[in-house]
Specification:
The complex is a heterodimer of chains A (about 170) and B (about 300). With about 170 residues, chain A is of the alpha/beta class. Chain A is built from 3 helices and 8 strands, in the order βαβαββαββββ. Chain A is about 25% helix and about 30% strand. Chain B is an alpha/beta fold. Chain B contains 12 helices and 9 strands. Classes of the chains: A alpha/beta (about 170), B alpha/beta (about 300).
């Protein structure tokens, strides 16, 4: 299938910047908010959003961690998944947790992430921020609170955030 | 990367990539074990039987904990008090257990090759060797390697000394295979009666009969237990004499005056192969080895369970 560019480099930069602004708009103080990027592909996206937030509100402390959900997948035994690092150097107890991933598709990764998060404590609230929302393809009742771009795609198509060159493509 | 094998019978059968995969996965599980809730649901649908035909404290508890931390269901079997004493064969016992829908077998047996025998007859069940006779103890070697890596950064080029009863030690054999595969240098030290004659040629390890010289050479000393239960002839005159010649003592280490990581697979014969002040000293990582054992065994079980379908 032909490769289609969903977001060019400048659009991607603008979108990441907008997501950062939306998050700050919603939470004036980040004191009770923590951000968690989901391994492996949500890391780069979340890092860029966090960089943006830090630039916009340099005086605020931004808590950021990364979460690997491999051991919580529902298809552990069907195919091999390589585990990555988890680093959550703060407590999530009673915090507002914003999970950040690149593409929201079936919803199964987020389901696993919610389970994984439980093992670190009981957050006050969990929100989801994604760069791309593949609409109408969910297999579980999960939706995002902050969305970079919503797209319509079929199951045969793949959506990927590429970093060299920096763009979002569908093929 | 996926493991190249369906069973963990020994380190001999593993590739360096397999070993790296297991050690990396163990790092992730070690992090899991630091969480408030030290449990993941990965093996929720797996039932594991722990078949122990030989006594064990550490290995059995460690495997059982690893299984529980992975949410697997477990059954424990010890030979004493079972129908083994009525003369049931190994294969019959295992087949009976498997007919109750068990997915994996962790086995310790006093006969070398017992897990290999099972793997031949049960190709669809993952078999994990928890020590077979004087052959191998793969998870111990993996946790030793993990502990060395954690303490010193890497295995490549490390000088590792194995001290003591090399002849009867499955820990020694597994350690030698693993360390050689991962690019470490290995020497063995002990009385000539406890070191196999052709080990230098067969396994490519150095031999040193003088413990002080051996310690001067090494970065890590893994002190092995004198296995009185496996010796049916007199191979050294007394435990006291063994301690004088080959015991790792504070005095000897002071003379060597070098920073050496001290390891022991347990159970320790204090005052025989190692003195208490060395085993409890600041360079000893003996208890870290035990701690790491759970994470390493979680990694092995997780990777093999995924391999099975």
């Amino acid at each position: 299938m032909l490769k289609q560019v969903l977001l060019t480099t400048s659009q991607l930069n603008a979108t990441l910047n907008r997501l950062a602004h939306q998050l700050i708009e919603n939470y004036d103080s980040l004191q009770d908010v923590v951000f968690i990027g989901i391994q492996p592909r949500g890391i780069k996206v979340s890092e860029l959003i966090i960089d943006n937030i830090r630039q916009i509100v340099p005086s605020q402390k931004v808590e950021y961690g990364i979460l690997d959900i491999t051991f919580y997948r529902d298809d552990v035994r069907e195919e091999f998944h390589k585990a990555s690092n988890t680093e959550i150097p703060f407590s999530v107890e009673d915090k507002i947790v914003v999970l950040i991933d690149d593409v929201l598709y079936t919803g199964r990764t987020i389901r696993a992430a919610l389970d994984a998060l439980q093992d670190f404590g009981r957050p006050k609230k969990v929100e989801l921020c994604v760069l791309i929302d593949r609409r109408f393809s969910r297999q579980l009742p999960i939706q995002a609170d902050y969305i970079g771009k919503s797209i319509d795609s079929s199951t045969e198509q793949k959506v990927k955030v590429e970093w060299v060159p920096k763009e979002v493509v569908m093929y | 990367m996926q493991l190249s094998t369906k069973h963990l019978l020994g380190i001999k059968e593993l590739s360096p990539e397999d070993i790296s995969t297991i050690l990396t996965t163990a790092t992730q599980f070690k992090e899991v074990l630091q969480r408030p809730i030290k449990k993941v649901p990965s093996l929720r649908d797996v039932t594991i039987v722990n078949l122990f035909y030989e006594n064990s404290t550490r290995t059995r508890i460690s495997f059982e904990l690893a299984e529980k931390r992975l949410s697997a269901d477990t059954i424990n079997f010890t030979a004493s008090g079972s129908s083994v004493s009525k003369g049931e064969t190994l294969l019959d016992t295992v087949n009976n257990i498997l007919s109750m829908k068990v997915d994996m077998v962790v086995m310790r047996h006093s006969a070398s090759g017992a897990p290999h025998f099972l793997a031949q007859h049960l190709p669809n069940t993952a078999i994990v060797n928890a020590g077979d006779g004087i052959n191998e103890h793969p998870t111990q070697a993996l946790l030793d390697a993990f502990s060395i890596q954690e303490k010193t950064g890497s295995l490549q080029g490390k000088k590792v000394l194995l001290v003591g009863d090399i002849m009867h030690s499955r820990v020694a054999l597994s350690n030698i295979y693993l360390l050689k595969k991962m690019g470490a240098e290995v020497k063995v030290a002990g009385p000539p009666t406890l070191i196999p004659k052709y080990i230098e040629k067969a396994l490519g390890v150095g031999v040193e009969y003088n413990l002080k010289r051996a310690l001067q050479w090494c970065d890590v000393a893994n002190v092995l237990r004198i296995q009185l239960e496996r010796q049916n002839q007199v191979l050294f005159s007394s435990l006291r004499e063994y301690n004088l010649a080959y015991g790792v003592t504070k005095k000897l280490l002071d003379e060597v005056n070098k920073e050496i990581v001290i390891m022991h697979p347990g159970p320790i014969n204090r005052g025989v192969e190692i003195d208490s002040d060395v085993a409890n000293g600041k360079d000893s990582i003996i208890l870290q080895q035990v701690e790491n054992g759970v994470a390493v065994r979680m990694a092995v079980l997780y990777l093999l369970a995924g391999r099975n379908n």
